[in-house]
């Protein structure tokens, strides 16, 4: 199946998050009435975000023919916790969603380490070919990172303002993930697999 252009894929993945941020910032000082029920800005933004994420994920699936396990898990948890926040008109459930996601990923990586399974490599080996030792180190580091992000999310949403959490979720968490990936550049180089040299053609 033909792969979508990179900008289309990025728009489908990041668009719902940016929309959530924009809707929250636009209505953060208001109460919005939907079908006779009043919502604060956060829950109203969640009400918009959930169906948009479902639609963008379905479009991405249609274009690529597949979804990553992380995308499926994220979609399910968004439906569950986002739906609870809207249904109960309580933003706490949606704020807890990143914590659950990060703990789930940390648990999966912990099982991979204990069982000596290279699940991370099975997903990323084409983009990042490394030795088994390299994948074990990266698996442990990513497990620790997800645990740290889960703790950070809990601290921010419980101790700081709603606006602070929205900024943290929209920009802080992606930035921390980017810094983590860049910080492991040395590991990628140290454990990179050498590309097999091509056989010389006859007559060369």
Main attributes?
204 residues; two-stranded antiparallel sheet; 74% helix; globular; mainly alpha
User: SSE string, helix = H, strand = E?
Assistant: HEEHHHHHHH
| Coarse morphology | globular
Number of domains: 2
pLDDT averaged over residues: 88
Low-confidence stretches: none
Radius of gyration: 20 Å
- Helical content class: over 70%
Task: Count all strands and give the number.
Answer: 2
Q: Largest sheet, if any?
A: 2 strands, antiparallel
Structural class: mainly alpha
Helices, by number, come to: 8
Question: What strand order characterises the main sheet?
Answer: 1-2
Percent strand equals under 5%
What oligomeric state is this?
Answer: single chain
Ends apart, CA distance between termini: 37 Å
Question: Can you walk me through this structure?
Answer:
By secondary structure, the protein is mainly α. The protein has two domains: 1-88; 91-193, no CATH class. It is built from eight helices and two strands. A two-stranded antiparallel ribbon has the order 1-2. The longest helix has 28 residues, at 132-159. The protein is globular. The two termini are 37 Å apart. The model has no long low-confidence stretch (mean pLDDT 88). Belongs to the YciB family. It holds the Pfam family IspA.
